């Protein structure tokens, strides 16, 4: 623009990251243009340099092609709930004095209160100790081998306890031929996944092992499994987001199972099991978790891909895995959920976040699908229905695509944001939003609330640097 042009036409206003300022000018008919810009979320020069190389040079094209492959594997998955078997029969090497837990690797000395409570309960459940006191001594002795569920093709909610006698649901990805496992949801109240470990908790787990698990196994065998993608699609249109709200999907699964279950079982047993599932609004959560694991495992080990294949937490650390970095964990201290508490409890009672259930966010559900479930926004203290839509739209900024099969009516049937890209997280500073339950920080008490939490940015910064280092060496 020349000086004469400036005198005749006037200045043009360019707002860089100042949208409110620009909209005020536009409302007064003053020409102004808003530029979507924000300062980098990190000031670490090594992270900034790595993110720049991964996003803006020849590596970017390679990564984009790898991510296309990752997304194709995600979207082409065909997850089917196929069977139920004891964990010891499914997971090679899982035997006496071995306990799988949620999150990245963790030693007894680093475990939080509810994780310790669940470990002691699991030891009593298996009969390795007769009392909780003896179980704690055994756990601290070094004789118990601890390992993450994710290292064994499994996932578990909250504390994520998996031991040899526990019945695990099996989801098979029929497109890629892999399987993933998750324990059966115990129901609400004081339960092991929230650190509960008293006699009632143990008794219910024995019932799952002796009654519900075997009948569910017989039912799935008789009906050749239950496809899950369509149940998820319908659940999203009925108000579920598959982390905090599973009412619709639990009901849909019950419809699939009930006729066959009634046929293959004695009436009293069928009634007992169906009544339990019908009264447990979160029953489908564990199915969705195994589904998420089955979808994401084939996405691992794609050279150059910046797609997150797992997010998980153990009450101490938050960890992520990235396709192009194989099975390496990138961890940071886990954050405290923000939300609502049951009567008599407050944030002073809360434990930091935990559980493998973040696998559902990894496939575009949970906090990424909040717009489908405005009721959840109020339940977890996330705000109004419009706020729920904002959460989902914000997650679209850090993902590779939207899933065309899992759509949200409130967003004009836009698909759920899918395929978290570590580059976009680091460049934008937007971290994944997760819907979650809140456990009491002391062992043996259980759930005290529900809320939302964000993944720590540091995990993604580490992953970005590691991916840059790997690709730079090619």
What does this protein structure show overall?
- With about 475 residues, the chain is α+β, with helices and mostly antiparallel strands.
- It folds into 3 domains: about 5-35, no CATH class; about 45-75 and about 300-470, v583 fold (Alpha-Beta Complex); about 80-295, Enterococcus faecalis V583 fold (Alpha-Beta Complex), CATH 3.90.1710.
- It is about 40% helix and about 20% strand.
- The chain has 17 helices and 18 strands.
- It has helices at about 5-10, 20-25, 45-55, 60-75, 85-90, 115-125, 130-140, 200-225, 230-235, 245-265, 265-280, 285-295, 360, 375-380, 385-395, 420-430, 455-470, and strands at about 15, 30-35, 80-85, 100, 145-150, 155, 165-175, 180-185, 225, 310-315, 315-320, 330-335, 340, 355, 400-410, 415-420, 435-440, 445-455.
- The strands form 6 sheets. Strands 6-8-7-3-9 form a 5-stranded mixed beta sheet.
- Strand 17 (about 435-440) and strand 18 (about 445-455) form a beta hairpin.
- It is globular.
- The two termini are about 45 Å apart.
- The relative contact order is 0.15.
Helix-residue proportion: 40-55%
By secondary-structure content and strand pairing, the structural class works out as: alpha+beta
Which CATH first-tier class of the largest domain would you pick?
Alpha Beta
**Mean pLDDT value:** 91
Task: Going across the biggest sheet, name each strand in turn.
Answer: 6-8-7-3-9
Name given to the CATH homologous superfamily of the largest domain = Enterococcus faecalis V583 domain
> What is the end-to-end distance?
46 Å
CATH architecture of the largest domain: Alpha-Beta Complex
Over all CA atoms, what is the radius of gyration?
Answer: 24 Å
The best one-word shape is globular
Q: How much of the residues is beta strand, in percent?
A: 15-25%
